[in-house]
Amino acid sequence: MSQLSSKQCYQQFKKNLNEVEQHFGRKPGSVQVIAVSKGQSIQSIEGLAQWGQMLFAENYLQESLLKIISLSDLPLQWHFIGGIQGNKIQKISQYFSWVHSLCDIKTARKFNDAREKSGQGTLQVCLQINLDQESTKSGLEKGSVLHVAQQLRSLSHLHLRGIMVLPKTSVDFDQQRQTFKRACWIFEHLKQAGFEVDTLSMGTSRDFIAAIAEGATHIRVGEALFGPRK
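-> C-alpha cells emitted (230 positions)
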C-alpha cells in the first residue's frame, strides 16, 4: 500500500468505527483499536502511527522484536496476543506493556517474577478465554476464570485488566453476537465478584461490528487497517 492509500484506509476505518459506535449506542471513541501488525513491515506500522494509531499487537515474539526496537522512538504501546512459551516470558515481559493471552497461574507467576526483577513496573494482563473449548486454541474454560483471577490478586506486578476471546470463525452476524454475549457475561461476572476490570478484548477485522454491539472495549484489527497481509 502507498502512504496515501494507507492514510485513506485508516481514515475510512475510523469513520466506520464511529458509525458503528453510534449505531449501537456506544459512546464515541469508547472502543480502543489495537492494530495487529503480524506480518506487516516497520514502514507500514510507522505509517499508521503517523495517522494517529498508537496501539499495536503482535503474535510472535521473534518477529516483533525488530519492530519494537526499531520504533522505540515513537510513543507506541505494544500488546502481546499470541501463545506464550515459558522460555520467552522474560523477553515478552521486557518489550510488551500488555499481555492479552494469559491462560494459567504458573505463567502469571513467571511474568510477575520477571517484572519484579526488571523493575519495569506493573504488566497489564487479560485472561484468554476459550469460549468453545477448541482443542486448537489456548485459553481458560469459563468455569476456571474466577479462580485464576482470584489467584492473580497476590501478584503485585500484574494488573488484571479483563478478558480476551478469539471465538470460532462465523460469517453469521447473529451467531457472532451470541458468542460475544457469552464473553460479556464472563466479563460482567468478574465485575460482580469485585474485580475492577475495564477491558473486554474481542473482535477482529471479520467480526468487530458484532463485538462492539456486545460491549467490546478493545478490538484487535489487522487487515481492516493495513489491507490484505502479503
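The chain has a mean pLDDT of 94.
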